[in-house]
Task: inverse folding
């Protein structure tokens, strides 16, 4: 299973591009090896590079989701009495073929592919879905005139009509280096490029995937590539950015930092980069740290800047932040590097100047941004690995050299036409002699004086490196000696990568003559073999490294620093193949002997007395309790958990709470086998949790306790959880039928359903369900009864359930030893900046005395300023700074403000005359790192997911799984089986708009909801055709905008944005889309329909729960084959619940199988019930007891 | 498929049936009946013999009673060794129940330590745990724990509470992911036949090449006489917790799963019974 990882990119001195994964151990050669490169600059999703032909290339990773761009054009027609609707338009009309506004002429055939890297997916076709409503055949929409509101109905006064044609083009050059084709006029073309740096994706989210691409040309000019984004990976044009001097190198950070190096040795810093000006506005100059040695190389991160001066010293820039991108001063660092690069979370890599190895800066933490020490990455190359194991079998160097005389003259010098450093470019074939040492091994005696040495850039020799000098000298010697049969120069040509020296061309020699050497098996083998001459430990030599796409997680260890020697790893693998048999042997023997010992020592002596009696184990502590009587407040209590073994050997526990009531000592006690759930409650001031029993669930009045520290609370939660599970004899992982739920806080709970939960004469009340917590933090979970369980985090990461249990704060024996992994989630915390308009100063933060706080939460009732707002709990930590959130519902203006007539009201993004207040939403990302039985499933981030519900009788191998990515693409996961629940790959199912909800039923009925609120049914989905064939648009009930769909065995339910639950009537095998919608209930925020067609929901407001608590789990009772909508509701745990899935529970009642009722038309038999069920929205069979405190209870469980 | 955790339970709940008899020279008022008890292998004699003391003190005169001590076939039993170790070392392969003689007089100062109260046992127990952690983790894990965690270890042992004990002890059995085991293995090898009390040396669980060292490697290194067969026949048994693990068993696994509660692997080398 793929682990989440990111890549470090590097180019070796031969121009080969490698990547090193954060979970890997070897450098892997880039997939496209056609070109040699000088520079690369990487981000997560792609990498830009400058090849040795000085052209810019981009490498976009292939993924399961294609890059598609929709081209559209409108065909406009006007009605005239003669020809009806036709293409004859009035002269004042718009073009017959135009864009949506009518102003641009866009003929069908005028659309061309923007570059050779795109291809058309299909031909032009008419869009038959306008605004969520299907149009008539032909896709025409009618209106009185251009422009106006178009409708799909032709009216008597419709004089014009138009229809939209769409065509998709797809970016096809993925996993290859795609040349950036310049379409500018020749005089606008930039000269060949020298350096490139990409970044800037954090500046704004729009458009999706936008990148800033900066490049430096050979003449020292700086160019910016416009419009690089997800659906336009190549960008459109280069625009020149003036600079105060000649620039030789540039570095762009993820956010708004941009530094460049001038030829003279100073650095320049771009000011004014923000979302409105991604190119920035002006430059400032920063002097080099040392007066004699100018800056040679600079690299920036989010808020750190590193540089290397000409004397190879490394410097860290202090004081860099958004307001002051220039920083304040330089600090010298230990170490001498050729270059440095800053990675995604300010991690730093450098290339050592002596050994050309890549070093990683250890100890970089948010508080210690300059790190502590350089550590060398000793990972070898993938190609080396396969060879080192057989290093002993490596043929002697002589085998690589034959007596063939290779024709040196065929060597092509690519790239620069003017090798200025021709001093180092010998015209003789012997120039290649880099691997001369290889030949030296057993070449002619004339080369005997050369010893193994590193292939070194001859330019290096200028910097006075001894090795280089000697190499050069030796090379010169070799050049002199040219015995006829000298295999050395003929062996191969190596081309040398450029050093960082500015304005120097480098000689590029191709390796094309390689192909001529008949004695070589392959290029790779040769080079590896040759380098092996230097010893198996010789590392690759690097010329450039880019960390812009590499995220080093401080928690997970890297395997880069210890080299498993090829031999021992093979020995290990050998021993591993032996040990399974052996481990079985010694372990078996131990188990066997232990049981023999028990028999021997205990069997005949059971009547003996035990030396230690079983005593009652008591754990006591001091906590706080939200007391039962008014005025409600926290009071100190003593708590004791007593565990005792009963006479029948069963263990039971009681929790005692001792308190003082009017000077009297009193206590309350709870039997732990009655506790149904213990859940952590989000509370500003206290670390508190709530304990529920069935009775307390009904009353919505749990026992609330609070601990002084988070650790103490977790200790108690862990202990109480364990004791509850023990007293209910629950241990081990949840079964495949388990019901999973997620609270608003993100905590995960799982419950084992009893067979009586869904069927049987007396359905078990759901307030008796026992929930235990599982580690992790997610937004939703979906399952099915075959044990395939997936979760999605708030940051849209997809997680796969590993089958473990426990995790999080649940430690020790209550947690499975394996299958628990680190899990993290990122979510946003929002605060609002509120302002009121007054005639004197306009909008200001001074409001009316009755107004909300000027910095507040969403409701306006709590003051939340940037400084006093903390992450939700100590487990969370900030991972970003406060930023203006432009995506607030209702829209915002360019500065992020939303306007309204007054607080609170509905906000809109543009200011009108009547808007007296405005607010701006600020967001800050915080991250939690916990652990749980979850493994990340990279790389696609998801919004929704659905797994086919199976019955126990199914024995289908493949499990159908559909999902929606967070961009709204519909995906189908292939290769999911019980043994491999993660599946293998995603299949993209094309849609014309983003989707938001998806569900697949037991018979492969796939229903989905699009972003505009309309419903779709996917036809012909089957195991042979996992993606079906086409979408059918289903009109929504009563013009409601839908937001969720769930399909059980045969029942289809949808939920609209106003909380109404609808049931699809009229579904038959021949007409699976059904015919009409039946209203079932309102007040619902989420629902789940299971394989027995059972319906569970999260309700909004439930009697007994307080106004602020959201989300109570409810169970639809009375659901029968003849009664699929059920009759009434049973109330379960809540409030504070966000999501539930019952799709794993296929446990059928013991008596009588579930009959096949798919074909029945429920509409006929249910007319009578419709009225009833409409009225019975919240009527419960069991009257809820109203708790005495209906007023605002600040300690209720809320989101 | 049996889980490794079952080994922990089996080790913890091991019991030795014992018969306590009062030394005949002790002065009693009445006939002292022998007392039968199941002793936990993992505990210490003076911790679990309150009942024995009470039983015999009932028949003795008050003034005759001083500190209790135990011996087996003439050998005074060191209370600070775990019971299972004492049995394996001195009395394994003998008929059960184990016959221990109880003394109240003539405390053998040269052979035994005094044990006036449970605090002495606790101090000794904690000292062993700390020493073991010093070997395993350079004392980092034990020092990071709070006082109440140390207390919980002791209470778990004293009250025979498996979960209570292992809730804390599991932390002492962890190691950083980049290593494959502990720094050194805490072990002691006992031989009834030699003079010195035990062998304890520094021993790494992982070889430099990355392979796991086995029990055989350990013995070869520190006590080769134990396993090199003289005249071709294996004369000794290597016993831990009453069983004889194969010499190929990884020592890291043994340390994690078959240590005593004091986190040491107490290994007995005893002569093999001839029958």
Result:
């Amino acid at each position: 299973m793929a682990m989440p990882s990111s890549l470090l990119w590097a180019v070796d001195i031969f121009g080969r591009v490698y990547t090193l994964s954060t979970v890997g151990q070897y450098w892997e050669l880039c997939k496209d090896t056609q070109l040699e490169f000088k520079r690369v600059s990487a981000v997560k999703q792609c990498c830009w590079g400058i090849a040795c032909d000085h052209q810019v290339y981009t490498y976009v990773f292939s993924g399961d989701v294609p890059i598609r761009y929709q081209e559209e054009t409108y065909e406009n027609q006007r009605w005239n009495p003669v020809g009806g609707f036709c293409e004859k338009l009035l002269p004042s009309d718009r073009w017959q073929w135009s864009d949506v506004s009518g102003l641009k002429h866009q003929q069908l055939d005028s659309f061309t592919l923007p570059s050779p890297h795109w291809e058309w997916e299909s031909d032009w076709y008419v869009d038959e879905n306008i605004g969520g409503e299907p149009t008539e055949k032909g896709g025409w929409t009618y209106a009185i005139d251009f422009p106006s509101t178009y409708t799909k109905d032709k009216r008597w006064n419709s004089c014009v009509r138009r229809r939209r044609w769409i065509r998709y083009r797809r970016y096809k050059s993925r996993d290859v280096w795609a040349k950036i084709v310049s379409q500018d006029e020749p005089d606008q073309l930039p000269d060949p490029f020298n350096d490139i740096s990409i970044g800037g994706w954090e500046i704004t989210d729009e458009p999706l995937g936008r990148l800033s691409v900066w490049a430096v040309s050979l003449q020292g000019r700086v160019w910016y590539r416009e419009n690089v984004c997800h659906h336009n990976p190549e960008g459109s044009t280069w625009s020149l950015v003036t600079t105060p001097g000649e620039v030789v190198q540039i570095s762009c950070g993820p956010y708004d930092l941009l530094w460049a190096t001038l030829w003279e040795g100073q650095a320049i810093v771009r000011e004014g980069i923000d979302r409105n000006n991604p190119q920035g506005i002006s430059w400032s100059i920063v002097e080099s740290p040392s007066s004699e040695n100018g800056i040679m190389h600079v690299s920036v991160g989010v808020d750190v800047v590193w540089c290397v001066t000409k004397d190879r010293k490394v410097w860290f820039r202090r004081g860099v932040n958004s307001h002051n991108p220039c920083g304040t001063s330089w600090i010298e660092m230990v170490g001498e590097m050729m270059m440095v690069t800053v990675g995604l979370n300010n991690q730093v890599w450098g290339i050592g100047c002596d050994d050309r190895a890549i070093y990683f800066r250890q100890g970089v933490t948010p508080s210690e941004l300059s790190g502590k020490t350089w550590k060398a990455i000793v990972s070898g190359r993938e190609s080396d690995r396969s060879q080192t194991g057989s290093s002993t079998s490596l043929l002697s160097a002589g085998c690589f050299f034959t007596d063939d005389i290779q024709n040196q003259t065929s060597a092509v010098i690519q790239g620069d036409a003017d090798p200025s450093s021709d001093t180092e470019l010998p015209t003789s074939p012997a120039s290649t002699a880099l691997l001369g040492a290889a030949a030296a091994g057993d070449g002619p005696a004339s080369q005997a004086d050369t010893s193994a040495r590193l292939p070194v850039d001859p330019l290096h020799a200028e910097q006075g490196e001894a090795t280089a000098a000697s190499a050069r000298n030796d090379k010169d010697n070799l050049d002199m000696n040219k015995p006829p049969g000298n295999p050395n120069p003929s062996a191969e040509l190596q081309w040398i990568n450029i050093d960082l020296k500015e304005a120097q061309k480098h000689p590029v020699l191709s390796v094309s003559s390689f192909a001529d050497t008949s004695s070589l098996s392959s290029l790779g083998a040769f080079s590896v073999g040759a380098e092996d001459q230097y010893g198996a430990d010789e590392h690759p030599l690097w010329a450039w490294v880019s960390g812009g796409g590499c995220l080093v997680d401080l928690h997970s260890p890297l395997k880069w620093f210890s080299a498993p020697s090829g031999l021992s790893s093979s020995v290990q693998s050998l021993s591993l193949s032996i040990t399974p048999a052996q481990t079985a042997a010694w372990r078996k023997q131990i188990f066997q002997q232990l049981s023999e010992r028990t028999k021997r020592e205990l069997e005949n002596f059971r009547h003996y007395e035990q030396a230690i009696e079983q005593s009652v184990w008591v754990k006591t502590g001091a906590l706080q309790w939200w007391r039962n009587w008014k005025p409600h407040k926290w009071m100190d209590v003593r708590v004791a958990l007593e565990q005792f073994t009963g006479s029948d050997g069963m263990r039971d526990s009681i929790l005692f709470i001792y308190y003082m009531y009017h000077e009297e000592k009193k206590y309350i006690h709870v039997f732990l086998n009655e506790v149904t759930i213990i859940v952590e409650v989000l509370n500003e001031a206290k670390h508190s949790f709530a304990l529920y029993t069935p009775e307390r669930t009904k009353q919505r009045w749990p026992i609330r306790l609070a601990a002084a520290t988070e650790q103490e609370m977790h200790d108690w939660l862990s202990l109480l959880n364990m004791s509850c599970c023990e007293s209910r004899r629950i241990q081990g992982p949840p079964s495949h039928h388990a019901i999973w739920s997620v609270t608003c806080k993100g905590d995960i709970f799982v419950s084992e359903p009893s067979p009586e939960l869904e069927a049987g004469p007396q359905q078990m009340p759901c307030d008796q369900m026992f929930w235990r917590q599982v580690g992790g933090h997610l937004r939703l979970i979906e399952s099915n009864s075959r044990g395939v369980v997936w979760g999605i985090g708030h940051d849209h990461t997809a997680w796969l359930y590993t089958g473990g249990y426990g995790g999080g704060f649940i430690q020790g024996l209550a947690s499975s030893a394996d299958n628990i992994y680190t899990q993290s989630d990122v979510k946003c915390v929002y605060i609002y900046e509120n302002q009121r308009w007054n005639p004197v100063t306009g909008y200001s933060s001074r409001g009316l005395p009755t107004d909300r706080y000027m910095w507040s939460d969403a409701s306006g009732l709590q003051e939340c300023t940037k400084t006093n707002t903390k992450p939700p709990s100590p487990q969370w930590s900030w991972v970003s700074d406060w930023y203006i959130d432009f995506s607030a519902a209702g829209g915002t203006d360019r500065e992020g403000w939303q306007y309204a007539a007054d607080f609170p009201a509905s906000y809109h993004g543009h200011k009108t005359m009547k808007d007296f207040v405005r607010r701006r939403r600020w967001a800050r990302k915080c991250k939690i790192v916990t652990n749980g039985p979850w493994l990340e499933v990279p790389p696609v981030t998801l919004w929704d997911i659905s797994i086919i519900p199976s019955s126990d009788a199914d024995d289908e191998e493949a499990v159908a799984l559909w999902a929606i990515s967070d961009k709204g693409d519909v995906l189908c996961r292939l290769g999911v089986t019980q043994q491999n629940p993660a599946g293998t790959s995603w299949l993209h199912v094309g849609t014309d708009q983003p989707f938001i909800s998806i569900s697949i039923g037991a018979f492969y009925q796939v229903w989905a909801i699009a972003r505009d609120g309309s419903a779709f049914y996917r036809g012909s989905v089957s195991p042979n055709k996992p993606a079906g064939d086409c979408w059918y648009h289903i009109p929504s009930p009563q013009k409601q905008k839908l937001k969720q769909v769930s399909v059980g065995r045969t029942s289809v339910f949808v939920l609209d944005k106003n909380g109404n639950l609808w049931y699809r009537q009229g579904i038959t095998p021949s007409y699976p889309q059904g015919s009409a919608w039946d209203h079932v209930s309102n007040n619902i925020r989420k629902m789940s329909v299971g394989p027995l067609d059972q319906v569970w929901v999260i309700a909004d407001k439930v009697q007994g729960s307080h106004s602020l608590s959201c989300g109570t789990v409810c169970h639809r009772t009375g659901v029968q084959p003849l009664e699929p909508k059920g009759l009434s509701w049973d109330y379960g745990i809540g409030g504070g619940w966000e999501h539930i899935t019952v799709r794993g529970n296929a446990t059928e009642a013991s008596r009588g199988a579930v009959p096949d009722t798919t074909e029945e038309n429920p509409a006929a038999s249910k007319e009578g019930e419709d009225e009833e069920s409409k009225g019975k929205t919240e009527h419960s069979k069991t009257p809820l007891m109203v708790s005495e405190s209906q007023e605002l209870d600040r300690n209720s469980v809320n989101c | 498929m049996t889980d490794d955790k079952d080994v922990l339970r089996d080790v913890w709940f091991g019991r030795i049936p014992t018969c306590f008899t009062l030394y005949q020279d002790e002065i009693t008022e009445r006939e002292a009946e022998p007392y039968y008890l199941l002793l936990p292998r993992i505990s210490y004699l003076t911790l679990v013999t309150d009942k024995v003391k009470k039983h015999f003190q009932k028949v003795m005169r008050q003034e005759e009673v001083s500190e209790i001590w135990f011996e087996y076939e003439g050998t005074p039993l060191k209370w600070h060794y775990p019971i299972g170790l004492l049995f394996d070392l001195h009395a394994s392969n003998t008929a059960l129940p184990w016959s221990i003689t109880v003394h109240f007089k003539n405390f053998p100062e040269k052979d035994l330590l005094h044990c006036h109260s449970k605090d002495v046992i606790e101090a000794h127990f904690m000292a062993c745990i700390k020493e073991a952690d010093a070997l395993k983790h350079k004392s980092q894990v034990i020092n990071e724990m709070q006082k109440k965690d140390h207390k919980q270890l002791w209470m778990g042992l004293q009250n025979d509470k498996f979960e209570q004990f292992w809730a804390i002890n599991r932390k002492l059995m962890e190691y950083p992911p980049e290593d494959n085991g502990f720094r050194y293995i805490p072990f002691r090898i006992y031989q009834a036949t030699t003079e010195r009390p035990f062998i304890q040396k520094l021993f790494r669980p992982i070889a430099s090449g990355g392979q796991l060292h086995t029990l055989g490697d350990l013995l070869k290194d520190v006590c080769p006489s134990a396993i090199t067969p003289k005249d071709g026949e294996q004369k000794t048994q290597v016993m831990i917790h009453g069983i004889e693990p194969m010499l190929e068993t990884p020592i890291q696994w043994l340390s994690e799963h078959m240590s005593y509660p004091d986190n040491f692997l107490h290994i007995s080398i005893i002569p093999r019974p001839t029958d």
